Amino acid sequence: MAAGLACLALQRAFHEQNRGMIMLKLADLIEQHGEELAMLDSIDSGKLVHVTKAFDIKFAADSLRYYGGAADKINGETHKCSGEFQAYTLKEPIGVVGHIIPWNFPTLFFAVKIAPTLAAGCTMIVKPAEQSPLSALYLAHLTKEAGIPDGVINVITGYGPTAGAAITSHMDVDAVSFTGSTEVGKLVMGAAAASNLKTVSLELGGKCPLIVFNDADINMSVQIAWQGGFFNKGEMCVAGSRVYVQEGIYDEFLKKLIENVKDWVIGDPFDPQVHQGPQVDKEQFEKVLRYIEAGKREGATLLTGGKAVGEKGYYIEPTIFTDVKEDLSIAKDEIFGPVICVMKFKTIEEAIEKANNTRYGLAAGILTNDLNVANRVSRSVRAGIIWVNCFFITDLNVPCGGHKMSGFGKDSGLQAMEKYLNVKSVFTPIYNSPWL
Amino acid sequence: MANSLTPSLTFETKDPRNEEVITVVAEGDKDDIDSAVKAARTALDSGAWPRMSGYERGRIMMKYADLIEEHAEELAILDTIDGGKVFSICKNIDIPHTVHLLRYYAGAADKIHGETLKLLGEFQGYTLKEPLGVIGHIIPWNFPSTLFFVKVSPALAAGCTMIVKPAEQTPLSALYYAHLAKQAGIPDGVLNVVTGFGSTAGAALCSHMDVDKVSFTGSTEVGRLVMEAAAKSNLKHVSLELGGKTPLIIFDDADLDMAVNLSQNAAFFNKGEICVAGSRVYVQEGIYDAFVEKSVEMAKSRVVGDPFNSEVHQGPQIDKKQFEKVLKYIEYGKNEGATLLTGGKTCGDKGYFIEPTIFADVNENMKIGKDEIFGPVLSLMKFKTIEEAIEKANATRYGLAAGIITNNLNIAHRVSRSVQAGTIWINCFFVFDPSCPFGGYKMSGFGKDQGLDAIEKYLNVKSIITPIYSSPWL
Q1: How many Å apart are CA B244 and CA B221, to the nearest integer?
Q2: Number of helices and strands (H, E) in chain B?
Q3: Model's pTM, two decimal places?
């Protein structure tokens, strides 16, 4: 039904002028209602309200602005042919797009996905995660207010195996984008293949390494490692869950790292003094605790944390394991909770080998001031995003996406629109052209 | 393979002119694919190829192109005897086009660019374009040489290593290309050829955990299996170039002789064994009757026979399976009520020769109007208005190409923008150029071959962000 509406809207949307202007209006509305949206994401997902408002909402509004300003800058090319032909490429909207978005950044992902799709002139169906449907419904309402025609953006709340699966196997959906776990990513791609060979883009899991060299600023490194592991309660695909520290600074690093524990406040995410809210639901909560038990059982050393907090809700202490061998489940699997493994390394070769010893390849961080180390390691680590002397830096102008089993296709950057465009080559013979 | 396989299993490759065995070829299986992938992985992770400059890779690729040109005759003979393709066309079109492609990408290898990016805050961002890794190429039997290099050239330029699994019907030229690659100086392990069947060697490639991407050209049905296997295994990248049911739309103002000529070529070139065959010809009512008359006359004048004979226009279909499939569709056409204007029968007692066949009064609901036949069968349909032509042209799950014949500027623009297909030919057909992207819409697949775009399929984009201090500008 939604797809049908989206199809009809596609016809009308082609005649819509100034898509960009409408998108800018939507950006303003998102910002104006930032407080409500942040509260919805917070109560749905346990995210910190003040951080969601300052970061998530701003990024969401800005993505509408970035792509709103790009909508009239979509260019094909003319080509020089070997014979007397004129050829050019047209970039056409790919059609009806399905977006399946996750629960860890509900408003942010909604905007990041719809913005390039709107700019490309497509119509879409958004299926928000069942854990966090509220902001998506509010955003649907805001899109109408902004002047986006009926049928262009359709929001269907529901579950993955039913609504999500229906989108991925729909014969009349032209493209699907999915952000979530690698396991479900496989199902999405399989369903696309079994149905109508719709194009697929996947942003999946990660087990991101943060590599800290001896010459790194130790205080900065400790802060980056702490935030890398515990920001958003570790519910980040790019969480720096594996921290490799060079032996020269290892002991001092650990000492300073656990000093952060005493000031770290776990509690109600509506409270601006709180640093970490609850995990998103019971399933995730139990999964994280299971991994903590596995870590202990498999012989890693629990440096700090490891326990649930309070009687009610899904709160877990920031947890650090050391003496972690590469083959332990806590070092291999994506935990998606406030758990990090800190490991020691000697040489740059060892760091690179260990960093790459994963089927994931989403992001990596490198802390060093040595130019050659930075260049060598950034080129050698197999990941789609490399942060040198920083972490979690996202920018709308920078393409973001994984290598290996972290997926394919980029969000952010002008490149992101290409997923929603079909390239058409047009040839015509030419006569009496003064040049070829 | 870098070194030849010691065949434990072999299979026969046949000559479609007379159904005789040409020779036996090694039948690669899962283990052989594993060995090839290991060789490719080693060549990538520790070999010279990705560590060479694009310029050096380009020079080796140019040498490779020269060698192919020197051996054009032998290669054309191999494709003719394996694939039933017309020899003079193989020698004068297929092989030169192959060489052109390889040279195009050789010249592009040192022109691969990432970008520096302006960020919102005090950060420097840039993208690096890295070789994607170990690539699997599964290529079809209809253009064994051209499609080998359509796939291999951009992957080589990108610095990747690869395994090519040629179609079981046409393994011969691929093996020769592997031999020439070594002669050209392509390091061992970079370009591996494993001959074998789709369900064994091909499937092993698609589900291999250490292959980073598979590119497939073939039927839509098998394309699905390729993508499913990629999804189930390691989520490798996939690009698919699949079937088509390409419409050719001829307006009243078209030059009649040019239009008839073009449509014959569109439907019957390479015995109709081409994914972009113009198998649906829509003719506007004003010129329809004259068009039909001339088409039948022209079809009757096409010479079907031994593809080595320079007088022959059309050789045999590739194998027994395709031959029987085409004949089945001709029967469907007759049973479903289309009018058989000419052809419809086999030629000769041996081999897989079929007469150029034209049906009229076809509609899009008939099997011959819907399915890809992949044989010398042309379906003729009449139309009145431009709206009708567009609607009918789009009434297909395929979207590979389309042709438009008109001299009216506005018709040309409107129809080219309205037909949902990846390549539009206006007043021409089958025009390919190494610089122009080629690839389907809808269920004809995704991902582009040719053009600089094609190299992107074999590159991984990596974004690098670093804080900057005291920069005089943002």
Answers
A1: 12
A2: 16, 20
A3: 0.93
